[in-house]
Hints:
- This protein is of the alpha/beta class and 469 residues long.
- 27% of the residues lie in helices and 24% in strands.
- It has helices at residues 40-48, 80-86, 106-115, 131-141, 161-171, 196-213, 234-238, 286-289, 337-349, 376-388, 414-423, 438-444, 457-464; strands at 5-11, 17-18, 34-38, 95-100, 122-126, 153-156, 175-179, 189-190, 217-221, 241-246, 253-261, 269-275, 278-281, 300-307, 310-322, 330-333, 358-364, 396-398, 401-402, 408-409, 428-431, 450-453.
- The termini are far apart.
- The relative contact order is 0.09.
Amino acid sequence: MPSKAKTVWYCTSCGNETSKWMGRCPACGEWNTMKEGLSRNSRSSSAANPRALVGLSESRPVPLKDISVERDSRILIGNKEVERILGGGIVPGSMILLGGEPGIGKSTLALQIPLRSKGLRTLYVSGEESPRQIKLRAMRLIREEEGDTEEGCTILGETQVDSIIRYARELNPDLLVVDSIQTIYSENIDSAASSVTQIRECAAALLRLAKESGIPVILIGHITKDGSIAGPKVLEHIVDVVLQFEGDTRHSHRILRSIKNRFGSTAEIAIFEMTGTGLREVENPSEILTPMHQENLSGVAVGSMVDGSRPFLIEIQALVSTAAYGMPQRSATGYDVRRLNMLLAVLEKRAGFKLSAKDVFLNVAGGMRVNDTACDLAVVVAILSSTFDLPVNPGTCFAAEVGLSGEIRPVGRIEARISEAARLGYKEIYISPYNLSEDLRRTIRSSSIRIVEVPDIGALCRTLFKGGQ
């Protein structure tokens, strides 16, 4: 049995090694430069025979002209949203890193892939749950009427990376899922599981397995308090795709966002709804994020938002009331409270609305998080609607940015926003007059939606609220 590789703490500035962590390097005097890694002797012995630890063969140089590339070689997994965000399916031999908060649905999504993919032989490695626990969850996820099956899924309760690689070579599955990379360890590394060294070395071993055997690997990763994936940053560098699962566990909707993709676009998102039978694909998010209440309610406006390459409409709710205490409250859910304060200052300074003594509460319906400045106009309209206590026509939506001078500024991808609003049956959309080119004007003249161009906040009030100020 080979001796275990010893880990030390080394300075990234001067390379000095110590047996324990120190806030300041004793050699060069730099602060916070100590990182965990293999000792020099361990690195030299591993470099002499690095593949002996995991039983991998030596690669040979191949001329570029002799490398064959098969067309349409992507693996389809039966989930259209995941296939779209990956660029058309999983590329053989690729490594995908799936991260997200605890309880967000990472393991559920990873288990749904083999259950709902006919003919896809999958080896599901779990270091967090027993095979019996996975079976109970699979029974809840299987929908027989839609053809779900568990015949092609093999469960392995193992955390030792050498054993995982050995079983993967024996079974030769179409897909390998590891849940999670933080629980996997190597006996050749003298450090605990989930340490920086263990994560880096185990991920490197699984990556070499994927590249040599052609088996795609999905790694599930934990995240830290600041939202980044736990472990060394090199983990995100060596994988081919990084997917981030976002959402509020108190709401049912989840967003799968592509952070890195070597085989497709990163300007894509996939939206799911958590149900009793697992994650349901939401192919038309606008229908679940737009108003679901009776009409003629004040303080409600619909904005056109673009996340990635997908436009969809979202409901903005505002409540403006007289401050009950000396200090007015400013609260925003799903929206940047600093941008809300900026828009309130614009309304106060440029449009003359006295909101300094008012409580303002803002909410984005559906638990979504808005980062698109095109929703500024919808936020302003919702605040004004609540201030005047006048409802906005339910067939109206908004897509424009509000500047510090009170002007209505243009936004990108306006044609896609207008098309989405027209598709959902909206009658008119308010935009900036500087947003439409002559070619685009001629294109949308035949559209069923009416384009209303407003240059500033004052014109917006006169047009929308008929001088309600």
